[in-house]
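hi! just following up on the protien thing from before. the input was this:
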Amino acid sequence: MAFEGLSEKLTNITRKLKGKSRITESDLKEVLREVKLALLEADVNYKIVKDFIATVEQKALGQDVLKSLTPGQQVVKIVKDEMIELLGGTESNINFTPNPPTIIMLVGLQGSGKTTTAGKIANLLRKQGKKPLLVACDVYRPAAIKQLQIIGGQLNIPVYSNEQSKDVVLIAKQAISQAYSKLNDVVILDTAGRLHIDEELMQELRNVKLNVKPHEILLVVDSMTGQDAVNVATTFNEQLGIDGIVLTKLDGDTRGGASLSVKKVTGRPIKFAAIGEKLNDIEIFHPERMTSRILGMGDVLSVIEKAEEAFDEEEALKLEEKLKKESFDLDDYLKQLRQMRKMGSFSSLLKLIPGMNQLKDIKINDNEFNRIEAIICSMTKQERKNPKILNGSRRIRIAKGSGTTVQEINKFIASFEMTQKMMKKMKDEKSIKNIMKNINPNDLKKIK
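and the predicted 3d structure came back as:
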């Protein structure tokens, strides 16, 4: 995952300062030297690192330790505040036009993930109540149009294409006309890229900008490209003018520091972050939350948002009824498991919980949940309703059907019975959905 190496180093640095009663100049220089090395190793641009360290030093030098904080926490607070500013200060959303459709133009190099990102953004905006239209404007890359059509089909989002034309401006205008007639309030243009920046590419993009007048031009940046990401962002902004940045492949590199540089060098906000391969693995970029993740402080607010999105209100009420009647069975268990998996992998969720990134001994194997699903699906309806009827021969049959062993069946059933007991104790408690509603986000921001 991006920033893992940086997060680990910064967490170790803060531990060294524990127990000191004052931040001395020598303490500060030693810490800042280590922070500087950590940022450089993570691929953050050198000039940005130099300015960042100078600002932190100016603010931290000679400060008395606050009564409620250790010296280490005081330095971390200053580092955190400056990193939040480096990443943009506050989140920046799409500027929707009051007269739809809002036209979003995605640009970037080939291989940065533009086509998949187009689908991800469309999916995210649909969850916000929008009615998006995807437009295949990449008429050069083989199978680019087909790829977008497949993504649109998976998401049940319409895709406009014109395989008879190579005129990108014409295709974009035709798509916008269709958006008016079909009442699509967002149009997302998936434009062509190149393996490198050239004048032909830029001229085509400038033509689209001039004739279509998109409300948002978003640069899609592959966070694994290292320092080249800074050069790409700078050139696109100078030659085309961009309104925001989308970071992709943040799940695939332990450094990712170049992405900390792109906002600073362009002056344009990071608007979205793609954090996985699935079409729902994208989120609005929150500088404060990302900084908390980098510094190993977790991101509780994102966990809550994922839970609220994954857990269906109607299903939650049904579960509450079952808890009251003490009739929670394996079918219910499977439903809850599948809803939790909508939130993402369990290993990635643990990293969002404060302090969990420091527990190296905890290993979460997401394949374990595939085995559980296979076990339950290998049971008859009667067996799921009443696991107590599972005798030896039934367990052997289930083991063969699920590709597991009888020992694994026994272990799972024992675990489920423990879950049932816990559910009985929870029957007088509020549902997960209601618990989430009663959490005050402002309180959670104070969690370190």
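The two ends are 21 Å apart (CA to CA).
The chain has three domains: 4-86, 102-296, 305-441.
cheers
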